[in-house]
Amino acid sequence: MDKNSITYQKSFSFAVRTVNLYKWLCENKKEYILSKQLLRSGTSVGANVKEGLAAQSKKDFIAKYSIALKEASEAEYWIELLEAGKYIDNRQKDSLISDLTEIMKLLTASVKTAKGNPGDKDREEK
Fold first, then answer.
1. Which of 13, 21, 73, 118 is 20 to 30 A away from residue 81, measured at CA?
2. Nearest C-alpha neighbor of 65 from the set 53, 79, 77
């Protein structure tokens, strides 16, 4: 596993932001449903990246990073919904979406690289 992976570092930082936002939404806005959905998907991105870095095969790596990409897309939805419901402001939404967009680009590039090198045993994400 490579904790120096940019994708790992960024997805971990996003998970921390998600946890902190969840706590803030519960304590200050008394919002528990949407924030819990964001907590689940936002922390799942990093968990799947970590699993992908410890993958036993290229197929496993691709599967975990693909799941991370889906979770990032879901997190984006919950962030947009929180902003539409006036639980977070546009600035907060834009900052979170910017982080997610960067993570999704890294995940997409890693999956494309892994799929494009069928004979290469090294994961190109590092």
1. 13
2. 53
Q: Any residues with CB less than 8 A from the CB of 14 and at least 6 apart, and which? A: 42, 45, 46, 96, 99, 100, 103
Burial of 33: CB neighbours in 10 Å, binned 0-12, 13-18, 19+:
exposed
The average pLDDT across 93-103 equals 98
Report how far residue 81's alpha carbon sits from residue 121's, in angstroms, rounded to the nearest whole number: 40
The DSSP secondary-structure symbol of 3 reads T
Which among 43, 51, 100 has a CA at the least distance from the CA of 73?
100
In this structure, are residues 14 and 95 in contact, taking their beta carbons and an 8 Å threshold? no
pLDDT greater than 50 at residue 125: no
Cβ neighbours of residue 95 closer than 8 Å, sequence gap 6 or more: none
> Superfamily for 6-114?
23S rRNA-intervening sequence (1.20.1440.60)
Asked whether the whole model's pTM tops 0.85, one would answer yes
The domain spans of the chain are 6-114
Distance between CA atoms of residues 59 and 118, nearest Å:
10
